[in-house]
Design a protein that fits this description.
Bound molecules: zinc ion
Number of helices: 3
Largest sheet: 8 strands, mixed
Helix content: 10-25%
Structural class: alpha/beta
Length: about 130
């Protein structure tokens, strides 16, 4: 699995601007590249509220989840591990200081997995403007 560099940048920026709240979303793919983040509406601040919101989403076609830990500690919590097991295979946790090195991808068992960052060309006709 891979992730588009622009998508990763979006995640990091959105997470940074959400501080002190958590940012959360679902990851969606084009082929084998994660290209989209489906935002989770109504996320409130507080420990693990973001992940609880993810539990309530209907089952949309996604490969996993992303959320932020404003504290900077990127270890998955017990709630996170439960979520990982239910909501797909690839789970990204980003943390402060939200730069290109401050994210980790886990599998549904909470083990770290490598996600290759690739340059992906977004086609204009995919945009719903
Ligand atoms: Zn978490």
């Amino acid at each position: 699995m891979k992730i588009a560099r622009d998508t990763l940048k979006f995640i990091l920026e959105a997470s940074k601007s959400s501080v002190p709240d958590e940012f959360a979303g679902m990851l969606s793919v084009t082929g084998d590249v994660i290209t989209d983040v489906v935002l989770v509406p109504g996320t409130e601040s507080g420990e693990d509220n973001a992940t609880m919101q993810l539990f309530m989403l209907p089952n949309i076609s996604t490969v996993g989840t992303v959320h932020s830990h404003p504290s900077g500690n990127r270890r998955p919590s017990t709630y996170d591990l439960e979520l990982f097991d239910r909501k797909g295979t690839y789970h990204i946790i980003v943390g402060a200081p939200f730069n290109e090195a401050s994210w980790t991808c886990y599998n549904n068992k909470g083990e770290q997995v490598k996600l290759e960052v690739v340059d992906y060309e977004f086609k204009e006709e995919d945009d719903n403007w």
